[in-house]
Amino acid sequence: MKPLPRDVMDRRVRRRQRRIAFIACGAAVGMLGLSFASVPLYRLFCAATGYGGTTQIAAAAPALRGERQLSVRFDANVAPGLSWSFAPETPQITLRTGQTATVFFKATNLADHETVARASFNVSPDNSGAYFDKIACFCFEEQRLGARETAEMPVVFFLDPALEKDEGMAGVDEITLSYTFFAVKQASPVAAAAVPLAKPRL
Fold this sequence. Notes:
Distance between the termini: 96 Å
Number of strands: 11
Number of domains: 2
Mean pLDDT: 79
Shape: flat
């Protein structure tokens, strides 16, 4: 078999190198895209399944109530770097599934200047997250408090009666809703313009 001319071989090598470079670049871009998408995808997964104690969001309470009654305990924390005091006004309630409850947390800015914070949250045990539905919560928005200002922050929620059909919830008699406020270095424009759920106390 007659060997190919040198220029033809060079063109084939260059084409092969370009294909390899294109595939490598495509793989790198794809991996970069997945790394950016992994966080929102993970959040969507948690919100849909209650994984890791992630609570659900509901527009309204269910029409029918269930039969079980569970204790709901409230836990409040402040991360280092935020000069706030933060505590539930009611440490614990007993709630029937399907029944709507409104509880308040009280936050006070201990600093001599305005500060902005955002609350992270979860419930435990983790499997209860799929049945803990919030209708309104201060955790949905950044919260802004002036110097030495105190505000009451409501949470409106219910426990989905569907938990009564989950064998994993059969032995659960108490659910803990936990919040931790973290300082926000620079408030987003949307949060700065939005009307907060927090109600300042005079």
